[in-house]
Write a structure and sequence with these properties.
Radius of gyration: 18 Å
Distance between the termini: 50 Å
Shape: globular
Strand order of the largest sheet: 2-4-5-7-6
Structural class: alpha+beta
Strand content: 15-25%
Number of helices: 5
Length: 227
């Protein structure tokens, strides 16, 4: 059983590596063939950056999944910094998804929260990758932050197929993957949300999901206000 799990894991990681590497290879060929065209070169290099970020996220996920404990070092950080950096990252993802941000409930972007910047960035990257992957091309993604009494709530809103009620707990398990609208298991390594949940646990919080108002999903977590 252990050997089978190792083989399945190796095959899954190899599959996840194949897509971005193939994209980078084709984009490199495009630059070599038509590198004199500044518009083509700009598109290719920007897209390659996004694919490289996806590879880095995969490496982070695989490395983190092998650890028994996740080290989290929160410090006071402006919530606006987290949101704006996540928006920049989302702009590099494939699918042409416009990304909007909103600060609600009287929240000032300079409000300080307790957060490990690298770890929370990793959570937001995982949520944004999923939002882009499971949403139709060009569908908008929204990053929202709202002020509560003692916490700031962060939400990533997409307009994809959504998560079925039966899969809500499964998608946060190690190697757990949900199903699409036709009941088929979705592609993926099943690590991103598991790791994100572990990171949020280190922050004394929890990652949850609910249906969006216009379809899709809303992934939610809270961060303590640094006062």
């Amino acid at each position: 059983e252990l050997a089978r799990l190792k083989a399945d894991f190796s095959a899954m990681v190899a599959h996840e590596l194949d897509s971005p590497l193939s994209a980078i290879r084709k984009l490199n060929e495009m630059i070599n063939a038509r590198g004199g065209n500044s518009e083509v070169r700009g598109y290719a290099t920007a897209t390659m950056t996004g694919e490289i970020e996806a590879l880095n996220a995969l490496i982070d996920d695989v490395r983190a999944a092998g650890r028994d404990e996740f080290e989290v070092h929160p410090r006071p950080l402006p919530v606006g910094t987290l949101i704006e950096e996540a928006k920049v990252y989302a702009g590099l993802l494939p699918g042409g998804h416009p990304v909007t941000t909103a600060f609600l409930g009287g929240l000032d972007a300079r409000e300080m929260v307790w957060a490990d910047p690298e770890r929370i960035a990793q959570v937001l990257r995982n949520l944004l990758i999923n939002a882009a992957k499971y949403s139709p091309t060009g569908a908008p993604i929204e990053l929202r932050a709202s002020l509560g009494a003692e916490q700031v709530r962060i939400e990533v809103v997409d307009q994809g197929a959504g998560v079925s009620a039966e899969d809500v707990d499964l998608i946060f398990e190690k190697f757990g993957r949900g199903r699409d609208g036709e009941g088929r298991e979705v592609a993926g390594k099943g690590l991103g949300l598991y790791i994100s949940q572990r990171i949020m646990g280190g922050h004394g919080s929890r990652l949850t999901v609910r249906p969006g108002p216009h379809g899709g999903s809303v992934f939610v977590f809270d961060l303590d206000i640094a006062r």
